[in-house]
Amino acid sequence: MASATPLLKADKVEAPSTPGCKLGVLSEGYSPDAKISKGDQRVSMVPDVAESLIKDGYAVYVERGAGIFAGYSDEAFTAKGCSVLSRGEVIDKSEVLFSLEPPVADFQMMNCKVLISWVGRLQDKGKDVIMKANQYRITVVDVTAVPRITIAQKLDVLSSQAKVAGHRAVLEAAHSYQRFHTAEMTAAGKYPPAQTFVLGCGVAGLAAIGTSKAMGSVVRAWDVRDVSDQVHSMGAKWVAVDFKESGEGQGGYAKESSDAFKKVQQETFKKVLSEVDIAISTAAIPGRPSPLLITKDAVAAMKAGSVVVDLAAIGGGNCELTRLNETYVTENGVTIIGFANLPARMAEQASAMYAQNMANLLRHIHAKGKAGAFISNLYGALDQGEDGDIVSRSIVCCKSGNPVAMPPPPQPTPIKPKPVSAQEQAKKSASPFQSALISATVLTFTVCCMVGLGEGVSTALLSTFLLAGAAGYQAVWGVAHALHTPLMSVTNAISGMTAIGGLLLLDRSDSYFAQLLALVAILVSAVNIIGGFVVSQRMLNLFKKEGEKDYSPFMLLPGLVFLIVCLTKPELLKAVSIVSALLCIAAIGGLATMSTANSGCKFGMVGVFGAMAAAMVSLNEGSFVISTILLIVGGGAGLVLGMKVSPIALPQTVAAFHSLVGLAAMCTSIGSFVNTPEAGASMENVAAVLGDFIGGVTLTGSLIAFGKLNGNLASKPLDLPGKNFLNLGGLFLFIYFIYAFLNSPGAGGVLILWLVAILACVMGVHLVGSVGGGDMPVCITVLNSYSGWALVAEGFLLKSPVLTIVGSLIGFSGAILTKIMCDAMNRDIMNVLFGGLNSSPAAAAGDTGPKEHVETSVAAVAEMLCAAKEVLVVPGYGMAMARAQTAMGELASTLRANNIKLKFGVHPVAGRMPGQMNVLLAEAGVPHEWVLEMDEVNPDMESNDVVLVVGANDVVNSAAQEIEGCAIWGMPVIEVWRSKKVIFCKRSMGGGYADLDNPVFYKENTEMLLGDAKKTSDSLASMVKERLEKV
Predict the structure, then answer these.
(1) Which pLDDT belongs to residue 592?
(2) Which Pfam families does the entry mention (predicted)?
(3) 289-300 CB burial, b ≥16 within 10 A, e <16
(4) Could you report the per-residue pLDDT of 431-469, keeping only the tens digit for each?
(5) Nearest-CA neighbor of 330 among 363, 303, 366?
(6) N or C: which end of the chain has fewer CB within 10 A?
(7) In the 8-state DSSP scheme, what is residue 108?
(8) Active site members
(9) DSSP characters over 1001-1018
(10) d(C-alpha 503, C-alpha 623), whole Å
(11) Region class of 818: left (phi > 0), else alpha (psi between -120 and 50), else beta
């Protein structure tokens, strides 16, 4: 006999047979007939949200006709599993009742039930409601009393309804304003965009700014608090009132202003209002009269046809002429709108958001216990006193006939001004006299140093040193962030000109030991030159577009000219050397843009080749043969290393190459004195000891950096007891060695140089070891600069203009790049140079309450991406470690091919080397036009429907702006939390290099896609492609 039970059940969600809790949804009593209407069009629950609550074990009873005027029919509720009943039946069957407006007339029917409503417990009207509810032992829950803390953001009905009100205000203004909002150019003429002024930048104000901008209006905004950065980020202009007064009040709201401030304020507003077309005022202080912002004189100054929308009409209005719930036109033609029911004028949207707030409230209270635990958890929190849930204790107004005292509200983190570094703070606080005095002192000291160099350095060398330094200073500022990695690789290859120092020493030396040191310098320098240029060219090749022709090899032709001149015109060797040095300067200039970067690399190759050729043709036959063999061997090793290294290993490779420059400089410095061991304070001896010291620090410091970047050493900083005194002791010992060396001829001087080398190597280990792994990008730029100064020392030592020029170029350019990196990471440059000299101040306490994050799935994220119009991907080092860049490249191509605008936002120091993310994305075939810098993506962050953060943490951590004193406080970051939706794709909830929790993880618009980035990215790219192909 066949079963009567169907094989498949319908999709309809059925109420549980024994519900854990029974919810009732009451009508607000709205009627199109104003004479009998009691409430507005909204409803406190919508079908989709009700369906999700039924799955949590609730039964939902809805009053007949409750959602009709919000666009939700009784049939829609029934289809989702709700029971549609009469009002009396709903009240009778329910344990918990929802109503936006408290149904005071029905309180006698609600004995001992829970009422969740918009009460306003601190207002006189709310107090009357609570008093009447106590007569019937009703437990009243005030949804407006939710504390303003992170975990309660998703319950905040004030914010959700204010957002609707701000959006609707713009639509009301557009309806009354009889002109275009956006600029139009037509056959009938050219029409300017509307000018909008938003007064008050709370939730409603920000929504009004966003909607006005979306409609094409030019927006200005003001708030009593300084939120200018947020306003600017939305593309609006900030209106400043020239009067200093803090505007931060309790509970995150603005406070009332002083009379003096109001006077200046109204004068400013009158001027602005005379220039704009639309004014939207949103400044309201709960429980108090709305502040007067727009006087009748200001309205009189406005243009005919202008519109004022006053969202604070319920409190008397921000505009002196506002009439509650009325729209009228003044004598001078200004329309003033004073509706107090703007959310209800978008009832469907407002109801959906309110209902979601209610669902979040229920879930916050019932937690893992689902529906059956709601009432017990709610009352349990009250019984626990101060240990109970702060949200529950704040929203319950009365229980069992007794009032429930509201606990003191937790203090929210106030809106902070833009973080200011210690250096900038000092600059601001310094008087003009102090600034001028400090600048003059620094300039005088610098001039004295430069003039002092003239005591022992020839005028020709001094002039080339200064001019090359100035050229390097100017050139490096123009290099794009995306090309910082190739820049460092090219300068590293050029610094291999330490080989010229070895060649000159080999040619001039009579000492076998000095010649041996020269040969070592030549060998390791050759590795650096060839390996560096191979790596540089491989990186630049990644940025080439498919099918793009590269004609930069023609730039190698001058090398043939250099070779011919060197072989046939020995009298022009110095000219060849100088021109070669100038080409090295041109190499940095060429790296300023993508279009000239390949040519810049070729300039560097030709420059180094010309200088090497000029040096080698002067050698005797024996030295020439040995040098050639060493250059071939070293160059071959460099070629093999350069071809084998993967893009992800570029940082440690560059660090390793830097160590070779340090070794070569140290060998040449010691070898030069071994050849001519003459005591005295000569330029040669000073240069020898400085080159020895800088070379030693660069050698071991680079090796430590390599170990940290390659994972051979822990990235945690080496924190020895008294580390600052160790650094200071090393410095004083070096100064003593200089004095002793200058007064020790022969073997004694050589011994001291070896002691200096040992000291420098130890200090290199300690200085770089004391810097954490997160600061390695800056460390590499410092070491890059050190290699330049080592070359300068060789140039002075061997009286070589070409070494002096190139060394000065690299030294100054590396120093400027270090400054750029320190600014990008908000790091103290002295802290990096001297191995964590300073200690970070204690961080201010953030929100210490329980934190909840929301996890998502690959399928859900794929749906979001397919439905989005604009997507931003923020890559970090986690993407590189997981080798997920290829999948991200495929995802980008798929979305772009389907008219979904995807772009990449790269932080200047994302990864372990400046510009590393750009190189990795180029390797994945991402065109460089799709890759934008932090300063390019932050201003338009709100326009992004989805931001996908792949393996990044510190560079998107809002603690940099929210937790004063934390390790990254003040660091410029990509402000992803301002987008519509943020998805973090990372392995775990752990912190980044700075080991800081990221508040963005717990924000309302954030979801976590946890797991291996490679597998997740591959699945995401595949699923997105699959779904878009079906469209």
Answers:
(1) 72
(2) AlaDh_PNT_C (PF01262), AlaDh_PNT_N (PF05222), PNTB (PF02233), PNTB_4TM (PF12769)
(3) ebbbbbbeebbe
(4) 577 767 777 777 677 666 666 555 555 666 666 676 766
(5) 303
(6) N
(7) G
(8) 877, 912, 993
(9) GGSTTEEEEES-HHHHHH
(10) 8
(11) alpha
